[in-house]
# Entry
Amino acid sequence: MFSSTSDVFTNTATLITGTCFRDLFIESASGGGHIFNWSNAGVVAKIEMSGVCLVQKNAAKSVIYGNMGGGASDGIFSIWLHDFEYEYVPTNSVPAIYLKAFTINSISISNFWSTANGQSAAGQPSIWIESTNAAGAAFNVYIKQGVLEYASSGGIHLLSCANSIIEDCTTYDSSIAIGAPVFKVDKGTSGPSSNNIAFRACRSTIGNATHADLYLNTSESGQGSFWVENCTFSYLDSASTLPGTATAIVNSSITNFVDTAYLQLNFSPESNIRFGNSLGSSKYYDIFNGYFNNFEGYLNILQNGSYIGSINPSGNFYWGGTRASPNFYVLKADGKLFSKSHLYPGTGGGSDQDKAGLLAGEGAPSNGNGNNGDFYFRSDGGALTTIYQKRAGSWVGIV
# Structure
């Protein structure tokens, strides 16, 4: 099937539903239109494509054009595209597969090969899915087992999406620096923030110093809850950072998050997860999970490389001391304070270290410990030796 002047498939009705396309070769020439133009429909639902080869040679047209215009009654539902391939011009002014509507859900794209017919940093990505409903993200988007050949103008971009998975997708045979992130999650122009997005077993190796292979915008309010598992992304510049609010992920290591939203990660034990804040580039917390300095099984919390605390495999929380010799428990897994802990209630003004606190232990308290006004609870005490208060530098038994 071939078109050199117009869209191959288009419609005048407001509903397209219950349609299958199987075992077809369709080409739109440089003067042709969209191969599938759904923009005239109000609702597109229950569409299956299987075994098709779609070739788009017009740089101004899409393979599947589903930009519905954003009306409240527009929707794209239950789309199943599988075991197919498509080609597009890398300098295209619209994405190759472009699904943008007020309501989008249940989109499955699997076992596909996407080819840009040349390498260029200009243009739009291979797949673009976006909700235009400010109150509702696109959801149940599942893209898996895809090859993105020459994805130099972008691969898979999810805007205002939620509860979605990109799995086992990879770039292929790209040798120039990309002009857009290969994988991108962000807020759309008029839709809500994106959240609950999982990346599994994905790979890309064509990043450069301007764009990341994986871009997760965690600066957007309400955006986050991203899961990255068993992925390899090549981007890393000489300073191990990425300009702007993008996120660089390298072999499942993360650097330079800004104003981080909720993030769930599954990394190797040696990974260094660094969280930046808005106070300056030198303000970081470094969290080491696993075997850092032979501290097996501990979650170690550091600030600018200095140990400040840890949680051991039994769930006990330590604070102070060193990695090899932590100072004391702050809180045990059963909720009890350790005997060496010093609890400072503080004041309304926020002061604590020089105010009254609570201590506990076995034996009488030492005058060298505690501050005036502190109370000490003795586990082996008797009359007037069970509860002490420190007054003028000395402990006095009061109960």
Notes: Residues 342-399 form one domain.
